[in-house]
Design goal:
The chain is 65% helix and 2% strand. By secondary structure, it is mostly helical.
């Protein structure tokens, strides 16, 4: 079988599995978040937390709940890392994590970024990974789903001052969505030979006769949520390139399915909730999905072509760019994983993104700079593209000279202000962070690639900065591995980017949802711009590309584009 046919079959299998699961999972999540019934375990949790599940909240109270829960989570996770040397290790014992790294790691996992400036098996105990990081893999993903559902309610409701109850949405996302799916995927991963062990490791003798200690961990259970929750933080330093985390081709395909599944199915949830409330139809969800799929498919084609046509003596001799690739996966599986992980804010990797060709690596950076909407993180992808849909409707209204409307809700000053500010957060964080870092003398020492101004190495060094801040501000978590980010500047700067990149857009989109929910619904007229179908999908796609191009092309031209041209 030729590599092209194998690659095509792999993509076809992935798309087929997503198509089979799209409707049942999407409709199931719609029922989860619109049902009035509580499970027994949920009622127990509500009583313990003194939460009234029937009392809904305004957008302000909902946002305060998100911020309070996340702040407490950061403090608890920071404390666990700082005292892990006093706790039962459940395996190999480790020292306390130093303060700056503990801060960065706590922020990273609570914001669903999972940026790792450390080697997990050499820094954290199994207890810290399970009680600290894996818990956040559940709840940080659940926060994203909860916010997305609250935003959808803003489009669905009429003259309402409330958009749901954060504690109920959080609980249901964990208990009814993430836990069942996590158990299923953990079991599937175990069948592929993924490691699940609390031992400190295995002592072996290498081929040269030296003794080595191979680390083990409860990988399968943590891997499932790392991917389903678009978290991305690996239990082992090599992440999904490690054979213990990604042992077989089928495990690799299941990993990609896991990280795409919930973001894709949430578009169906959006359409179903609109249809059941009478605000719209399922075609709205399909239109959003079509735009996401177009971006994902286009990026997959670009990166695949770039890796098979890379410049350089070694790449041309091999017929492809094999540096940094896991040979057992090859180019097609590596690129499919890379495009999916940078498009979903997951950050898990099965190959070294820093070793991709200049064009391929630049495309992965652009995939994040589009705003993580192809199809985006769990929850964040949906509300991110809905913000862009509001902007597209506003642009369309200006073009035809009518008041912009989306599913019968008028887009006024308050709505477009919230949408615009939300879209500006990430570019401001990325460009400011890169600009400051580029003039810091200490930051030059962190580069894995550097050289005289104008040289390919210099351009790649800038790409490393750009990737780091794009990954942090978009809560992705992957990195160009050549950049060393363990000094205090990077720990603090990237940590701040993660916090602001996560919570400022959440506050703004909840404010927009509250404003939309308070409106009455207008009936569509002869001049109303339809917000579903190919016409609106094309307009939305154009707005996404235009916003990214106008914002980031100058910086990309100095980094990956300049490197590719040389």
């Amino acid at each position: 079988m030729s590599p092209a046919v194998a690659a095509g079959l792999q993509v076809a299998c992935l798309v087929g599995l997503l198509a089979v699961l799209y409707i049942p999972l999407g409709d199931y999540m719609a029922r989860v978040f619109t049902s009035d019934r509580d499970l027994g375990i949920e009622r127990l949790l509500y009583r313990l937390a003194r939460v009234d599940p029937r009392r809904e909240q305004s957008w302000r109270v909902y946002a305060l709940g998100v911020l309070a829960f996340s702040t407490i989570s950061m403090l608890v996770l920071y404390a666990i890392q700082r005292v892990q040397h006093w706790l039962p290790p459940l395996g190999a014992r480790q020292d306390a994590v130093e303060p700056a790294m503990a801060f960065n790691t706590a922020v990273s996992f609570v914001t669903n970024t999972n940026w790792q400036s450390y080697t997990p098996e050499q820094t954290l105990t199994n207890l810290t990974q399970m009680v600290g990081l894996t818990v956040q893999n559940f709840v940080s993903a659940a926060v994203g789903i909860a916010v997305a559902v609250a935003v959808v309610r803003g489009f669905c409701r009429v003259r309402s001052s409330v958009i749901g109850n954060f504690w109920v949405d959080l609980t249901r996302a964990v208990v009814r969505v993430l836990l069942p799916l996590g158990l299923i995927f953990a079991a599937l991963f175990l069948t592929q030979g993924m490691v699940q062990s609390l031992s400190g490791g295995v002592a072996v003798t290498a081929l040269d006769g030296t003794a080595q200690q191979i680390s083990t961990a409860p990988v399968a259970s943590q891997e499932a949520l790392k991917l389903l929750g678009t978290n991305g933080g690996g239990v082992l330093g090599a992440n999904s390139a490690h054979p213990f985390e990604n042992p077989t081709p089928l495990a690799n395909l299941l990993s990609i399915l896991a990280l795409l599944l919930i973001p894709v199915a949430l578009t169906r949830t959006f359409g179903t909730m609109l249809a059941e409330s009478g605000a719209g139809s399922r075609r709205h969800g399909l239109t959003i999905l079509g735009v996401m799929a177009t971006l994902w498919g286009g990026m997959l084609a670009v990166v695949t072509w770039a890796e098979y046509n890379a410049a350089g003596v070694a790449a041309q001799a091999a017929g492809m760019q094999m540096e940094g690739q896991e040979v057992r996966h090859g180019i097609p599986a590596s690129v499919l994983f890379a495009v999916s992980t940078t498009g979903t804010s997951t950050g898990a990797v099965n190959s070294a993104h820093d070793s991709y060709s200049a064009l391929g690596g630049g495309a992965l950076i652009l995939n994040m700079l589009l705003g993580e909407i192809a199809p985006g993180g769990v929850g964040t992808g949906l509300y991110g593209i809905l913000v862009l849909a509001v902007l597209a409707v506003f642009v369309g209204g200006l073009l035809v000279g009518r008041t912009p409307e989306i599913v019968g809700k008028k887009i006024g000053r308050r709505e477009i202000t919230c949408a615009s500010l939300s879209l500006l957060v990430m570019p401001v964080l990325v460009l400011t962070g890169v600009a400051i870092t580029a003039v810091l003398p200490s930051a030059l020492d962190a580069q894995g690639n550097g050289g005289p101004a104008g040289s390919p190495n210099s351009a790649h060094g800038l790409s490393e900065y750009l990737y780091a801040f794009a990954s942090s501000a978009n809560n992705n978590g992957s990195a160009f591995g050549g950049l060393t980010v363990t000094d205090h500047w990077f720990q603090a700067a990237l940590g701040v980017c993660m916090i602001l990149g996560r919570f400022l857009p959440i506050i703004l989109v909840l404010a927009m949802a509250g404003s939309l929910a308070a409106q009455k619904r207008s009936e569509p007229g002869p001049g109303t711009l339809p917000t579903h179908g190919p016409l609106f999908g094309g307009l939305l796609l154009g707005v996404i590309l235009l916003v990214a191009a106008l914002t980031f092309v100058p910086t990309l031209a100095l980094g990956p584009i300049a490197e590719a041209l040389q």
